[in-house]
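Students often ask what a 'structure token' actually looks like in practice. Rather than answer in the abstract, let us consider exodeoxyribonuclease III, a protein of 223 residues. Its sequence is given first.
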Amino acid sequence: MTYLKQLLKKLDLCCLQEHWLFKPEQHLLHDIDTNMIVTAKSIDDENPELSMIARRGYGGVAILWKKEMDDKISVMVDGSNRIQVIQMETDNTPLFLINVYMPSDNKDMDNEYKDTLAQMTEIIKTYRNTHDILLCGDLNGSIHRSKTSHDPLLKKFLAENSLELNQEYPEKKTFFHHNGKSSGQIDYFFSASEDLTQYVQILDMEAENTSDHVPVIATIKEN
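Now compare that with the structural description of the same chain:
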């Protein structure tokens, strides 16, 4: 948590994936930084019995933002427990932020991967004419390879929804498996407007970071 606490001092808003907390444990996210507001989803949102059966949670998404931004932000109900959505008011076009944790690149997860993409497609269709769309998170697929079954599915989804990266998006790895044998770029910011993300930085792995992902930081243009 120390690494995340230090990181939050530099951010206005933070999207988390894989917090591994059950719903009754979500208060721990609020304790990370008392200057941040939190909304979260957990794997047991639709099935509370899971938290009584499993020793620990898995998956889960959350968005944290500074308290002074709270009057601009609305939490939306769209999507499953893999998708957390907020709307942020701006001076002109409101921003619709989709934070997602996609299923892992296991072939047994292909149907869930397709279903999560389909959910996001419906969300984007609903809001794209009235909002700037920004999709971020752990996509568990890459635009720089065709090694897993998820890679072509992700590319097809992006093309069909006219989502793209900033032209200067770094081609740098964001995931490093704990076995030391696999790595890749699977964490992204995609938008329907190329200039929505003005600057993207992929941080280096540091000893204090206990995750197998590194943070990806974007500066967002306020329209």
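One point worth highlighting: The mean pLDDT is 92. Ask yourself how you might have guessed this from the sequence alone, and why that guess would often be unreliable.
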